[in-house]
Write a structure and sequence with these properties.
The protein is of the alpha/beta class. It is built from eight helices and seven strands; from the N terminus they run αββαααβαβαββααβ. Strands 1-2-3-4-5-6-7 form a seven-stranded mixed sheet. Helix 6 links the parallel strand 4 and strand 5. The longest helix is centred in the middle third of the chain and has 16 residues. It is globular.
Amino acid sequence: MKKQIVTLANVKKITGLHFTTKHTGKMAGMASISTSVTTNERCAKNAQIEGSICQKCFAAKQMKVYPSMENCMVENQRILTGSILDPDTLPIINHIYFRFESFGDLNNDIQVINYFQMCYKNPATKFALWTKNPDFVAQAIAKGYPKPENLNIVLSSLFINQERRTRYDFVDKVFTVYDKQYIQENNVDINCGARSCFACGQCYEKNGVRQIREQLK
């Protein structure tokens, strides 16, 4: 019996996973998969830290406005963190760039492995994963799943105006948000214009740019 080809068009029916291909704003033209910030324990703790970017979480606000989207993110989290998925059930992704976690963050190393498997299956796509939890990536690698060559790990800084340091050599870029006053007083080079991720592609390319800096909205 011929195997069914899994794509972004039919993957939800096959696995229950919800992929987003109809982004608006700076993510227009991009494809992604995300989990929920509202059910992520670390996200909840970070949101209570004074001065953290998580106190201004855009995703948490979106979840309140669009509960149907929140339900999809919660289901993604359940599926992606519960078990390592069969690679045959993961989709072929016909996109130049693909983002992991445009809304949420990593919950455990199983989720990382499932993301790695998507990268292995789609070597022509350039992936980027935003996370404040690189230890889960380290755990996945330690279990024998090498970091994919077509994946950039983007470490998100927890605090506004403070670039995060890391001991992990698998981190490709560090993403930090700055407020207007700090930018002006310290002449910060803002290289994320927040206009079009698809047209920019800086976070997805192996281009030697280590620090990604965005102005607080």
